[in-house]
Amino acid sequence: MTTLNPAGQPARLARGGLVDRSQPLRFSFDGRELSGCAGDTLASALLANEIRLVGRSFKYHRPRGILSAGSEEPNALVELRNGARREANTRATVTELYDGLEARSQNRWPSLRFDARAVNGLFAPLLSAGFYYKTFMWPAAFWEKVYEPLIRRSAGLGSMAAAPDPDSYEKSSTFCDLLVIGAGPAGLMAALTAARSGARVLLADEDFHFGGRCLSEQREIGDLPAHAWAASVIAELASNPDVRLMPRTTVFGSYDHGVFAALERVNDHLPVPPPFEPRQRLWRIVARRTVLAAGAIERPLVFGDNDRPGIMLAGAVRSYINRFAVSPGRHAVVFTDNDDAWSTVADLQGAGAEVVAVVDSRDGVMDANRLRSVSSTSVRNTEAISGVVRRALGGRALQAVEIVSSGGQLRRIECDLLAVSGGWSPTVHLTSHLGARPRWDADRAIFVPDQLPAGMAVAGAANGEFTTRAALSAGYREGQAAAQALGLSPLQLAVPSTPDEPEARQALWRVPSTRGKCFVDFQNDVTATDIELAQREGFSSAEHLKRYTTLGMATDQGKTSAVTGLALLAAQTSRPIGSVGSTTFRPPYTPVAIGALAGHHRGQEFRPVRLPPSHAWAKEQHAVFAETGAWLRAQYFPRAGENDWLQTTIREVTAVRSTVGICDVSTLGKIELQGPDTLQFLERLYANGWQTLAMGRARYGLMLREDGIVMDDGTVARLADQHYVLTTTTANAVDVYQHMQYCHQILWPDLDVQFVSVSEQWAQFAIAGPRARALLQKILDPGQDISNSAFPYLAAANVKMADGQHARLFRISFSGELAYELAVPARSGDAVIRQLFAAGADLGVVAYGLEALGVMRIEKGHVAGNELNGRTTAQQLGLGRMLSTKKDYIGAVMSRRSNLQGPAGPQLVGLKPVDRAFRLASGAHFLPVGSAVTAANEQGYVTSAAYSPSLGHWIGLGFLANGSQRHGERLRICDPLRNRETLVDICDPVFVDPQGERLRG
Amino acid sequence: MADADAFAFAPGLIGRLDGPPGLAVREHTPGLLASMIARPGQTTTLSAAAERAFGAPLPLAPRVASGAGVSIIWSGPGHWLVESSSAAINMNFLLTSCAGLASVFEQTDSRMVLEVSGPRVRDVLAKGLPVDLHPASFQVGYVALTSASHVGVHLWQTAADPVYRIVVARSFFESFWHWLASSASEYGCEIITPG
Amino acid sequence: MRIHCPHCGPRGHDEFTYGGDATRRRPDPAAPDAEAAFCDYVYLRDNPDGAHRELWFHASGCHAWLIVERDTRTQVIGAVVPARSWA
């Protein structure tokens, strides 16, 4: 590390810090070309360039600077990157600087220095607490057209990129014995202790540089500078193969049973991720034990115009000086209510800044002895004032502060930096994601963890153990405890020594008698007055206060404001803070991009897709595909000259009904059953009987749920004495299998039946149409007799193909034509469908898809998903006669309930439009002709509709009250959603070949 | 998001090319896959029969037992997947050896079997597989039934290097492969010609 | 949430599907009050605040139906056993 002060970085210190001055990085802010160093954040680089005005506030467009040096930052939000990678509301304080970084301030127009909308500040009375709820309420019509666009334009932060994110994200899982969250002194000590004891340790920290406050404080640990001690521990951990170090990783959520969610910013520190690498990775961490060592967040103080650029948390001032080698100001005042901030004085002086005054709000601190004892070095040229800062002066930059001494004397001190400290709040968020609330420690004015999730311990500042010495001891303590709990022998370690620190504090929640706006929540522009107003208007619980004032909302979720807000609410209602409660902490701790939550599953990979065996062939045939559940199925097979799906579908249906067609039906669920009690099992599973099902035969089966509603339908074929195969609908395959496992494992474990899904084993093709048999005969072994007498309707058999391959053949028809389903081993599916089309060319074979399948089943009145909708009974579907009265089966008792029996209930009917040219659509409601369109007059609805090439007009199926007795009746159907209506004639639901002559032919 | 067409399952390299591939993938084509489900009360007898027939007893926990040219992979309580590359151990042999003790269902065509290895194999699998494959938890002969990136998988470890076999339903293979290939592309992925 | 499958070991809850109250028993369909008993069985559920025995199906794993003792307030999971015994 050189000691040069890099050119163009006027506030960069000549020596010290953890930045690499030999590696300058170029970046731009609002178009201005600047330079920083490797190891900088965007915030430290801006400060190195003496840029302190960084953004405009949410509501009032007030100029804002950099408040913090961490993820709690409420003010310094910028737009990062460009084009499709533009990212709004990025915190400059955690943005790792890279060469070529482009950032812009946001929420300002036309420029950051001059923001025309800062006049919002003048209308501040209109924008007070709850302004959304009261100011713009009337007239109602104005909301959408006037108020909302107005507010949206002027309030709000950055803008999103409009183009799709070009980067990739992914998810990953990892497991560990001990998860340590936070790599400060406590976390490092815990990780070291557990790792040396033999535990698998995962150490995660949101920062790109491990060490926590070790990097930011002038302090020695075990005779080394704190950052060097941290580096030595990290080096040891890195060399341990059972330790995983995860920098740039925020553990943002805690879930039941030791599960944590974390976001790793794999490549956010580069302009563009390297090829094949993700930008971010979402981790699911499963940990047997956890040590939360997340540190603490310093609280700002509440006084007049306390948001001016140049007002910074005291701990952040020390971070910028000690870690980033930047002096955030030249003439500083320190304003504190605690001992800790006093160490800022020496650090500022060491950085060459003049510390004009230290203002301490506590009574009796300012006697000379006390002053010496709290200051780690002699306080040179610095005036110590017992009193408060009443108000900050200056607009875009701090110019002076007004101080009221404890004697009541008002003074004005010129300065460009005010370091403030209202004490530190433990970062307890992850202790309470599962619902536990932290406990208020009134003596120290902090929330401390109370009930912890099982397996979690808290160490260091997150547990209120603020001094470095206490943090190191706590880390050791919890590292040992974790090793013990993991069944390891905890290793004895010497906790390194470090000087003690004074830590007295006496919370100053609000400076009395201020002038100007006193901000509590900087990000949401919520002031102390807003909190008072909300309370006066009745919003006196912590949760109501949050909703009404927006305190603690948005990207920072109140990290710097929540405790102060509660304290002010408590003070106003004269209640102790502990009884006001706290708002609930929920994941995520810091914002997480939606892309990271989606991971691999975007676009085509949104969810896994199942491809049937004929997929490659269908693609070659230019099929149009449709997603049905997880499956991608051919919807129709357009040919040159066909204009739309309907024309294609009509051709496909016509061909099936006149020659032969082939459809891949491999997507049906197929479950094979064996064992002596299989028949008994089927009897109990299905509503219809199976005793008479002979070997080599198949039968339609209806499955009910226990509540008597139809669950699924399909066929069962008996291949051998104790060997059956059943089919389920494509949609219900998974549910039926699970249901069968339920029945077998829980209801009837005594049945000797074995079954397994063979859906993936078989490619299954429906071959339908008058020439189906002729086609099959060409590809089956010539010795295989499939004549109508040898292989009649509902026959099932193992067959041999002409090439010797074994297959299964079922004479089953969904289309109503002479039809077969041929099942071949899945790997042969592609070859067999090609074979079928080659063999069928002279028979006029066509491929047909889901559309044609749907048309033909409607023509035949077969129910499908639209009718088997989980609300219909067998009686309503016209299948009541299938229900066995001779046995118990799932749903038997409930399907016999008297109120499901009567004629008044809906029953399946067919319908034809009186105007034969009318295009029917499902969803329309049946109404008596001439009646008003009201719910009271509704008599049922249309479930399915299709153009029937066989009839030459549109037809439909529907459920109509007492429908089976109303064939021939004329009704009105209304579709209020599409604003269409017409008259229909009710008819039998079977439109084509009602006697079933074709399928038996 | 990676272009799906960039992930054709064909011999060659996918993803990062500078350096040795982090993942090697080979399709394994078994001669036979079959589901074997014990009949009630027959597990002990079946195990003895299996030991006689295959030279390996039935694993009663998530483990794989291997005999000459055959692996018996635990698939749930009372349920095994038999993977055979031996011509002698075919469906007829299974049906005969297990007669009266178990029901056997042929599954040879139902699944794709991949063998995955390479220095980054665990890192790749962690991107979708929610199971701890660290040697402290998962070793040679261990079996996991789970899902990877929303696709059901059956996985077992065959060598300490480590090498894993992954079995995936045939219809899901393309989606599964897109996930595996895109997860591996960061480290480079070599698809080895089956052999 | 993690459920310790007695066959497969601890797994994330997303591998399981929920099957409801494990203590209900399918009534005797031949009993004279079968319809009322089935109505209770099908529709009426206790929603206990605290200890609960419930069914979970290890859908992505071993396909076993499991009886899981779970405290609905604390999410603490006690014993997990198969709903049936395999032998």
Describe this entry's structure for a reader.
- Helices cover 21% and strands 27% of the residues of chain A.
- Chain A is α+β, with helices and mostly antiparallel strands and 1001 residues long.
- In chain A, strands 8, 9, 12, 13, 14, 15 and 27 form a 7-stranded mixed sheet that branches.
- Chain A is elongated.
- The model of chain A has no long low-confidence stretch (mean pLDDT 93).
- Chain B is α+β, with helices and mostly antiparallel strands.
- Chain B is built from 4 helices and 12 strands; from the N terminus they run βββαβββαββαβββαβ.
- In chain B, the strands form 2 sheets. Chain B has a 7-stranded mixed sheet with strand order 1-12-2-8-11-10-9.
- The two termini of chain B are 32 Å apart.
- The model of chain B has no long low-confidence stretch (mean pLDDT 94).
- With 87 residues, chain C is mainly β.
- Chain C has 1 helix and 6 strands, in the order βββαβββ.
- In chain C, the strands form 2 sheets. A 4-stranded antiparallel sheet of chain C has the order 3-4-5-6, with no helix packed on it.
- Chain C is globular.
- Chains in contact: A-B, A-C, B-C.
- At the A-B interface, strand 8 and strand 37 of A face strand 3, strand 7 and helix 4 of B.
Main beta sheet of chain A: strand number and arrangement? 7 strands, mixed
The helix-strand sequence of chain C is EEEHEEE
**Proportion of beta-strand residues of chain C:** 35-45%
Q: What's the average pLDDT of chain C?
A: 95
Indicate the overall shape of chain A: elongated
The pair of chains with the biggest contact is: A-B, 46 and 48 residues
Mean pLDDT of chain A: 93
**Could you tell me the radius of gyration of chain A in angstroms?**
38 Å
Strand content of chain A: 25-35%
Structural class category of chain C: mainly beta
Topology, number of strands of chain A = 48
The helix tally of chain C amounts to: 1
Low-confidence stretches of chain A: none
